[in-house]
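During the no-cost extension, the postdoctoral fellow (Dr. R.K.) reprocessed legacy sequence entries with the updated structure-token encoder. One reprocessed record is reproduced below for audit purposes.
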Amino acid sequence: MKRFGQFGLALVALGLAMSLTQGAQAQDKLKLAIGQRGNWDTSVAEIGTRLGIFKKHNIELEMLYTQGGGETQQAVLSNSVDIGVAGGIMGALSAFSKGAPIRIIGAETTGGQDLFWYVKADSPIKTLQDFNDRTVAYSTNGSSTHGVVNAFVKENGLKTRPTATGGPAPTLTQVMSGQIDVGWSAPPFGLEQLDKKEIRVIATGNDTKAFKSQTVRLLITNTSVLQNKKPLVERFMQAYRETIDAMYASPEAIKAYAAFVGIPEKIALRTRDEFFPKAALDPDQIVGLETIVPDAVALKYTAQAMTKEQLAELIQIPPRK
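Re-encoded structure tokens follow.
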């Protein structure tokens, strides 16, 4: 009888151990579409994964990288992914106004200080006015870079030839080979060429009224994902916020970013400190809606200004806990 009791206790202990092991292994999974692999702002999920922050929240991320916000948004709308990172705000407003199942769950980047438009060092182009009759690059339709180029055109009365060129790397190739007159980039991409004086910066996203000091990129999801996985989305946002805090406080975050992108740590630090103040990555507030909404009409992203009720339906940022 005594041996049976010991055997029974052993079985209970074994069952408990197996249960704990299975619980520890069973992480909730989220699939992400992320615009522009390697930008500081788009690396939150990667850095948080490398630092173990998402694991702490029992989340496993599958990260797919796109050529820009337009592709990211399309992946969200088609339900191919759960969350889109760095979707363009004008693209999101446009999609929602047309009845698309899209919701904003956070700001991704505020301000256009990180996006810059450049030319080859020997180009005759010196100012924005010289963009007339030139090919000017943006990543994909509906992206933040597309929005900035449209703003350049609208605000300066330009007649350019906006051209989708994908990410910074293929864009640089097209500029240097003479296929495109004006390229776009975001640090750390292009810093080496700038230091070598192979290219010159003509303008940044902050040279537009429509994007200066306003939210330009977003965290987005499909309406069905928010309905069916709301607690998981809320946990994702908790981990996302914690990762941003670590990115501006922990040397390990700089090491993780440098290793991810394959750049020296000093370049990683320069990318953060010169181009991305922490406030730019604050996910909790969409900044500048009072200007963004009428700009969306002026730039022909929406047919009419969105109401407060429509914005409240579109923007559903999980509260900070």
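The chain has two domains: 29-111+214-314, 116-207. The CA atoms of residues 90 and 296 lie 6 Å apart. The remaining legacy entries will be reprocessed before the final report is submitted.
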